[in-house]
Design goal:
mainly alpha; single chain
Length: 233
């Protein structure tokens, strides 16, 4: 596809993705709020916002990864591309593991200082655990998504994100058919959707992009990681 046509297609797809996402989320949020009730929905939002405050780290690293991948892709140096991807993935994974372990250890303290109704404590603890796993998946998905953007494959990124929204809508519609705690159901479903997003990016990239591969220990480059973190900061 020519550069001009690619820009037009990517721009149109992004506008369509934003419109569909907003429309679906407006509808699904109302359904989730009705099914979970003010208490359950408030608990999920409270726990989610507490943990996802660290999301800005993911955004900064993703932008840094995308920048280095885009630059090396323009030079068509596959060896450098593979090195950048490997170190970016390992860096994201390392930071994610450190943060998730720290947040897990701080879990009792955090949960003890959140205003959660007594009857929701068990479900809230389960929700906290699933959100930590979503943080981990979000981190390891980030360099994959950055690879797609560097490759200017915005169409596939948009398809995955719209599918994410539709799956969450399907989850909201399914509440009446399950006799389980709505907070646990929604937490489990959103974790499964996060896993789907990771697999959607990983499988496609692993098949179509040669720089995407399972990182090996011998590919670790402290200098490369310093460059990635330095640009992110």
């Amino acid at each position: 596809m020519e550069a001009t046509n690619r820009i037009i297609v990517n721009t149109a797809v992004q506008y369509a993705r934003t419109f569909i996402h907003m429309l679906v989320m407006l509808f699904s949020t109302r359904l989730v709020l009705t099914a979970m009730g003010e208490s359950g929905y408030g608990t999920y939002s409270l726990i989610g916002s507490t943990v996802f405050l660290i999301g800005f780290i993911t955004l900064s690293l993703a932008n840094s990864t995308q920048r280095f991948l885009s630059y090396s892709h323009g030079k068509k140096d596959i060896a450098v591309l593979r090195s950048i991807f490997s170190n970016a993935f390992l860096l994201h994974l390392g930071i994610a593991l450190i943060l998730v372990i720290a947040m897990d250890l701080l879990g009792p303290y955090i949960m003890g200082h959140l205003s959660i109704p007594a009857e929701e404590r068990d479900a809230a603890a389960f929700c906290y655990f699933t959100v930590l796993l979503m943080v981990l998946l979000g981190f390891v998905t980030s360099p994959l998504r950055a690879l797609f953007i560097a490759r200017e494959n915005i169409v596939y990124v948009s398809v995955v994100e719209v599918t994410d929204s539709l799956l969450k809508l399907l989850t909201a519609l399914s509440f009446p058919y399950f006799e389980v705690n709505p907070l646990k159901l929604y937490s489990t479903a959103t974790l499964a959707i996060s896993a789907f997003n990771f697999l959607a990016y990983a499988l496609y990239a692993g098949i179509c992009y040669e720089e995407c591969h399972v990182p090996r220990c011998k590919e670790v480059s402290c200098n490369q990681m310093r460059q990635l973190t330095g640009y992110a900061l």
